[in-house]
Amino acid sequence: MTTDALRSTPYLHPGFVALAHRGFAPTGLENSLAAFEAARDLGYRYVETDAHATSDGVAVALHDASLDRTTDGHGLVARQPWRTVRRARIGGREPVPALEDLLGAWPDLRVNVDVKSSAAVAPVAEVIERTRAHDRVCVASFSAARRRATVARLSRPVATSAAQPEVASVVLAARTGVPLRRRRVGVDCLQVPERVGRVRLVDRRFVRTAHAAGLAVHVWTVNAVADMERLIDLGVDGIVTDRADVLRDVLARRGRWRPLPS
Question: CA-CA distance, 182 to 2, in Å (whole number)?
Fold first, then answer.
């Protein structure tokens, strides 16, 4: 599928987008540099991560607002300086990475960044600027305001992913048959779950409506082979997965796996 988004956004290559969710971490080291490196070693061009900010304004690649679940540290990231957060160990082994370390470590890696808090807006934008990573990041957030505030601080355009109100506009257009223009949605990607509760969000009408508006559809978080196969057959443009190894094998069998050059 070739959409306006794929033609105009360097982040989105014209092929299936396989996104390693928080890197590839079967041993529980999500969002560590080791997990991102493991995804890259599998050949992944894309990884997904999240961003919070420390009390002194350092953007960190971490999903939770707190250190408690994934590290041996404790407390809210936003209430601690970087010198404290950096000592926490993911799974008791790997340090919490600064977002700048992730963007700087592998210049060929494309990174989907979910801005998790208002405090992270300026630090994330500053990291993108310092690393000149504009062409290889996609800025996402559940809050459209946070995403827009991040993008507004950048000197060059980046790819963007829809928040809930924008996704809702595509769902409405799909169900009513009213044409939707990409300019009205204002993003490049729809990164969505297949279902919200009992309601199926991603169906053939949704994909067709998104594509007609020039929007790519990426579905998260998909770990079962049968689900991957069904979504690929439905025509989605990408899948976010915890099982980067499984998705790679599915795409390879279909002749759609495009690994990073070795």
Answer: 14
Give the three-class secondary structure for 187.
coil
Query: With 60 as the cut, is the pLDDT of residue 4 above it?
Result: no
Provide the CA 47 distance to its chain's centre, in angstroms. 7
By annotation, the residues acting in catalysis are 21, 63
- Do 137 and 59 form a contact (C-beta atoms < 8 A)? no
Distance CA 83, CA 110 (A): 27
Bridge partners (DSSP) of residue 52 are 60
Q: Which amino acid is at 32?
A: S
pTM of the model: 0.94
Question: Is 91 a residue whose pLDDT tops 90?
Answer: yes
Q: Using CA of residue 160, residue 161, residue 165, residue 166, what is the dihedral sign?
A: positive
Say how far apart CA 38 and CA 234 lie, in whole Å. Answer: 29
Residue 1: per-residue pLDDT: 39
Over residues 178-205, the mean pLDDT reads 89
CA distances from 124 to 120, 140, 160 (A): 6, 11, 14
Cβ–Cβ under 8 Å, residues 139 and 11: no
- Which residue has tokens 């279909």? 254
